[in-house]
Amino acid sequence: MLCHSISAYMLDCQDFGAKIGNWRNATFCPLPCSPGSHYDTCVLPCTASCPGLVDTLTCTMTCVEGCACDKDFYYNGTGCVPSDQCSCYYNGHTYKVGETVITDDCHRMHTCHASGIVVSKNMTCDPDQSCLVKGGVMSCQLQHCFLDANGTLNQFNGEGGTITEPGSYEIIQNCDVSQTTHWFRVVVKLETCTPGVNTILAVYVFFNDMMISVNSKHDIWINGRELTQTPFTKSDVNVVVSDNTVIIDSTSTIHVSFSSTNELAISVSDVVADVLCGACGMIRPTIIELLALNIGKWKAPDFPGCDI
Questions:
Q1: pLDDT per residue as tens digits for the range 202-215
Q2: Which of 137, 220, 242, 273 has most Cβ atoms within 10 angstroms of its Cβ?
Q3: From the centroid of its chain, how far is CA 173?
Q4: Measuring CA to CA, which residue among 258, 257, 256 is closest to residue 269?
Q5: What pLDDT shows up at residue 258?
Q6: Are 229 and 219 spatial neighbours (Cβ–Cβ below 8 Å)?
Q7: How far is the C-alpha of 35 from the C-alpha of 78, rounded, in Å?
C-alpha cells in the first residue's frame, strides 16, 4: 500500500513538472523489469519502439514511471528485443522478421523486413503446384494424385471418381519413350474382397532396372526378392517404412506413399510434369480433359484378368 501511494504521489508531482529521482531500490518498493529493459522514473512510451509499431501505438509526450528499453533494444508490444527481433504489423497481424505470408489464392506474397515494413508483391505457383490451405496457412504445394483404399481416385487436376471394376490399372507413367533415365510406372491391383467394394491388393512401382512390389499388408519385394529391412537405396531410388507407411522415392522423378490405411499418394517432380500419362491424369494438360473418369483405358495389359 505504501509503494502504491508513493508512486501515485510521484506521478502527480511529475504532472506538475517536478523532476523526481529514482526513489526505488532493491529492498524498498522494487519494480522488476524484463530482460532487455531497466527501471526509470520518466519513460516516454514511443521513444524506443520497433519501427513497425510507430504507426500502431498511441503515443503521448508525458513520461511515466516504468521499464525502459536498454540501449540497442526496442519495444515490440510485449517486451524489449534486439532490432533484428522486431516484428512487422500488417492488417491486424504480427509477423516475424523474414516471415512470408501468402494470400489472395497464392497471387500475393507479403514479407516482413527488418525495417518493420511489410513488402508485398505478386506471385504465382509453379506449374506442378496447387494453392492449398493446410493448418490455416496458405501455400503453393506439389500437386498430388490420391487413390484411397476403396478405389476412389483424385487426379492431379482435382477431378476423379471411383474405380468400380476389379483389375490392374496404370495409375501413372512416364510416357516419353525416348527417356531412359527418368522412366517410371505405377500399377495398382484392385480386387473386390468385400462385396461391392474395390480394395487395393498390391502396388507395383517400376523403374529402369527395378520393380518394387507392396501388398496390402505392406510386405515389400525388390525385383521379386522380399525386403526384410529398410531403408533400401539403389541409384536414386529410396524405400523406407515410416509410421507403417511405405515410401518409395526417386529424388529426380516420383514420390509414392502407401499409408497404413492403404491410401496411395503420388507426386512428381517438375522434370517429368510434361510427360505423364495414366489414370492420375496430367499436371499440365495440353487439351481439355474429360470430366468423367475414363478408367477403362488405363487397364494394365501385362496384368491380365479374367476378362482377357
A1: 999 999 889 999 99
A2: 220
A3: 27
A4: 256
A5: 94
A6: no
A7: 12
Is the Cβ–Cβ distance between 87 and 79 less than 8 Å? Answer: no
Query: How far apart (Å, rounded) are the C-alpha atoms in residues 272 and 183?
Result: 9
| Average pLDDT of the segment spanning 240-263 | 91
Displacement of CA 238 from its chain's centroid (Å) = 22
Which residue type occupies 121? K
Average pLDDT over residues 152-164: 84
C-alpha cell at 189: 491391383
For 200-229, give the DSSP string: EEEEEEEETTEEEEEETT--EEETTEE--S
* SS3 state of residue 48: coil
| Amino acid present at 276 | L
Rg (CA), the chain: 31
Question: CA dist 254 to 122, 183, 271, Å?
Answer: 30, 10, 10
Cβ neighbors of 170 (< 8 A, separation 6 or more) are: 185, 186, 187, 277, 278, 279, 298, 299, 300
Give 236's Cβ-side CA count (13 Å radius).
Answer: 12
282 C-beta neighbours (distance < 10 Å), count: 19
Residue carrying the nine cell digits 523489469 = 33
Provide φ and ψ at 269, rounded to 5°.
Answer: -85, 165
Report how far residue 266's alpha carbon sits from residue 257's, in angstroms, rounded to the nearest whole number: 7
On whether the CB atoms of residues 262 and 199 are closer than 8 A, the answer is: yes
Q: What is the DSSP letter of 69?
A: E
- When pLDDT is cut at 50, 70 and 90, the band that residue 287 belongs to is very low
